């Protein structure tokens, strides 16, 4: 799906193709990080859900950088932004929301890690200071 059209060189750029590889191939990283964070978000392990959130945040930062880089003007010329560039950014934002609000039940894992309140609250009493009484 095309991201931008550059009329000065009459080429369409995508996430995998840019003229002389000027912008690199950002779609490779976006797809790998997005696939891993999607996979992690739907597995019922607490550390995987936290990893999915981290990867999604990293992916969003890279997507914003890529959006600004591909859509930016250069030498007085502004490329035409295509739908693929907007779809990429919106899908990464949705991916972040799926990592923030994951599906699955992790309450058993969390319950095992939370200490019992009664055992936690048992503290030896402190004797009063003789000077303050």
Highlighted features:
133 residues, elongated, 5 helices
Summarize it.
The protein has 133 residues and is mainly α. It has helices spanning 26-41, 46-71, 83-100, 107-113, 117-121, and strands at 4-6, 11-13, 80-81. It has 5 helices and 3 strands; from the N terminus they run ββααβααα.
Could you walk me through the main structural features you see in this protein, from its secondary elements to its overall organization?
By secondary structure, the protein is mainly α. The chain has one domain. 54% of the residues lie in helices and 6% in strands. The chain is built from five helices and three strands; from the N terminus they run ββααβααα. β1 and β2 (11-13) form a beta hairpin.
């Amino acid at each position: 799906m095309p991201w931008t059209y550059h009329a000065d060189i009459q080429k369409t750029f995508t996430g995998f193709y840019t003229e002389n590889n000027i912008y690199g191939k950002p779609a490779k990283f976006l797809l790998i990080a997005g696939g891993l964070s999607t996979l992690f978000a739907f597995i019922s392990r607490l550390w995987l859900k936290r990893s999915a959130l981290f990867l999604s945040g990293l992916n969003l930062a890279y997507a914003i950088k890529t959006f600004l880089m591909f859509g930016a003007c250069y030498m007085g010329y502004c490329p035409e932004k295509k739908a693929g560039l907007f779809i990429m950014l919106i899908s990464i934002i949705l991916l972040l929301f799926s990592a923030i609000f994951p599906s699955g039940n992790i309450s058993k894992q969390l319950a095992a890690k939370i200490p019992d309140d009664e055992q936690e609250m048992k503290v030896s009493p402190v004797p009063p200071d003789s000077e303050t009484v």
